[in-house]
Amino acid sequence: MPRSKGKKSSAPVTIHDVAERAGVAISSISRVLSGHPDVSERMRIKVQKAADELGYEPDFFAQSLRSGATKTIGFIIRDISNPFFGVIAQCCEQELRKAGYSMLLMNSDGDVATESINIAQLRRRKIDGLIASLVSEDIPELNSTLEKLNAPVVLLDREVVGLNSSAILANHHQGVEDATLDLISRGHNRIAFISGSTRVYTTRDRLKGFKSAFKKAGVAYPTDLVSLGKFDAEFGESETKRLFTLKDRPTALLSGGIGSTAGAMRGLKKLGLVPGKDLAFVAIDEWPMFDVYGQQFSSVYRDAAMIGREAAAALLEMISGGSPRTIMVETHYIVRDSSSGGLKAKKK
Amino acid sequence: MPRSKGKKSSAPVTIHDVAERAGVAISSISRVLSGHPDVSERMRIKVQKAADELGYEPDFFAQSLRSGATKTIGFIIRDISNPFFGVIAQCCEQELRKAGYSMLLMNSDGDVATESINIAQLRRRKIDGLIASLVSEDIPELNSTLEKLNAPVVLLDREVVGLNSSAILANHHQGVEDATLDLISRGHNRIAFISGSTRVYTTRDRLKGFKSAFKKAGVAYPTDLVSLGKFDAEFGESETKRLFTLKDRPTALLSGGIGSTAGAMRGLKKLGLVPGKDLAFVAIDEWPMFDVYGQQFSSVYRDAAMIGREAAAALLEMISGGSPRTIMVETHYIVRDSSSGGLKAKKK
DNA sequence: GCATAAAATAGAAACGTTTCCAGAAACGAC
DNA sequence: GTCGTTTCTGGAAACGTTTCTATTTTATGC
């Protein structure tokens, strides 16, 4: 018995009670409260009064069962404790709330199976729409799973071919290329790059920018310093340790995403290397308050709040019949202290 | 029409379809699938087979409407982009998911009215339980609003008198007292303290620790350096600026909570003051990765992941009939670089 | 084999809405 | 007045389950 008994909490007031009090049919109550046009002024007042007096609130589940609309949006991300996702979720929830929708939050824990279970759960809950940052883009059953949802979908930084969904994509390659070119122009050519799996757009687009910078600069692309695997901190840390203990070790590092950056920073610390001094360091995506920490980190910045708002807007648009669309969000290379360093030996 | 038509998506399979296929009554389907004891093995197999073949999934809303249980938990916090809350939400959601519950996330934006609207919304959605970090403890209608929910409640770091709910409280005063005593022993007596409103337990308990440290040390308590108002960064920044431009300005600062800390750091930066050098600085609550930033910040630490898990556990316990309980989480003063500084003039 | 109890099943009544349909009232035009 | 339209209202049928009650079947003890 999940709902506590409540000492003397009178049974909840239903549409029948209102009908009885107003002395009209229940269908009239429903019509008045849902703003149906064919209702006389006299009826409207009578019903409104009775409803107010009784403090009537329509039962959500009965409404959803009958009408099919749940006013509920699913939100799936790897990990809500990642502050970048946190900002997206916050802004998104605010926008959805304004429009009368509530948000069902689920962490996928970066796991394909968990993600799939979550989507199934959301389908049973008949969500009106889904906003998701998927673990991977090329899971075989993914498209059919999402289509079975029978609800509009907005993907965050993912490109799933053949799926009729909206997407909020970031223009990663631009920011990463700018950052890489800056590092090259400072004299670096051994630049390390750590990011997640190439099975998602995010990584592929970052890599594109990284590669094109070397091409544009006419410098050899350091294949051995590129490490792509997972977005989490564990991977970032172990790969940082590995790369920075190589014989011909890198002089600069780009870390892709909050998780990678966290891992990289921890790894560097354990190796006793200081960003901005012993190496040049650029983080892709910012931590909150990145600009005020004692040490100033360079970054490739994108506006998480805007991503959240745009995702909500795109979804609401689709719910009310609009077509899917793709929104491109700009990224910007922000130069701070940590872009220096790593070349002392060579400068001499 | 919120649910898209779906080109040829066959109508969803209902319990009637399964009953027809298996050649039994619909009540038998329900009994088998909900694990009712009075079911023959033959029936169980027959029904299971039919259900599997049709890919039957019970309609969530019909179930909830009839049974009253929604398997949904409300989660209300000020702001999910605060990484401290993010960790709590993440761990909490994981635990709830394991138990078959989903989480409805709502930001209160630190606003009493928004919070109240959110609670009303959750009531209409007949949540099975609520986990909340409330904006304030002494809103007049708060108790009745929460009681009308008719579901168990777990409060995060809040003490609401007369409410029959569980609570996860942190032992703030211990950590704050330790930190303050350390600063006093280093020679500080002009220590500033910024935190949120005293209308919540969090602030009151921190203040208690702050005050008792001065008493224990026999040092005059600097009333003019205590600033209590809001938890957000704006307040933290403006108060930091105000306090550190006083004539007899403080030599140390404790900032209460992630928001205050963010604001304080920004304020100090604008004033050109460096923590650990121009002043001693202790943050109450940690940022993720606090320990690896170039600059090492001292903190009063508490385990957010544990808070999230405990909250989920306490709620699930109450849902299955257990009594409310209060869990006390320890805090620890962690000394890092930023506890130094601020006393150069005096040292000479 | 027969009464009796226990186990298994079917049927129907909820749960609280929305929405369809039919009919009543009101209205103007003739 | 009668007729055809509108405008409004009431009744009832959904929506897809769970659960209560009644009935049938099976098992048990003698």
Task: Characterize the structure shown.
Two copies of one chain form a homodimer. The first copy, chain A, is of the alpha/beta class. Chain A folds into three domains: 44 residues, lambda repressor-like DNA-binding domains (434 Repressor (Amino-terminal Domain)), CATH 1.10.260.40; 122 residues, Response regulator (Rossmann fold, 3-Layer(aba) Sandwich), CATH 3.40.50; 147 residues, Rossmann fold. In chain A, 43% of the residues lie in helices and 16% in strands. Chain A contains 13 helices and twelve strands. In chain A, the strands form two sheets. Chain A has a six-stranded parallel sheet, with helices on both faces. In chain A, strands 7-6-8-9-10-12 form a six-stranded mixed sheet, sandwiched between helices. In chain A, strand 8, helix 11 and strand 9 form a beta-alpha-beta unit. In chain A, helix 2 packs across helix 3. The termini of chain A are far apart. In chain A, 47% of the residues are buried. At the A-B interface, helix 4, helix 5, strand 2, helix 6 and helix 11 of A face helix 4, helix 5, strand 2, helix 6 and helix 11 of B. Chain B binds a DNA duplex (30 and 30 nucleotides) through helix 2 and helix 4.
Percentage of residues assigned to helices of chain A: 40-55%
Extended strand count of chain A: 12
**H and E string of chain A:** HHHHEHEHEHEEHEHEHEHEEHEEH
Q: Tell me about the biggest sheet of chain A? A: 6 strands, parallel
Ranges of chain A where pLDDT stays below 50 over 5 or more residues in a row are 1-9
Biggest interface goes to: A-B, 65 and 67 residues
CATH topology of the largest domain in chain A: Rossmann fold
Biggest sheet strand order of chain A reads: 2-1-3-4-5-11
Mean pLDDT of chain A: 89
Counting DSSP H or I runs of 4 or more residues, the number of helices of chain A is 13
Question: Which structural class should the secondary elements of chain A be placed in?
Answer: alpha/beta
For CATH, the homologous superfamily of the largest domain in chain A is named as Response regulator
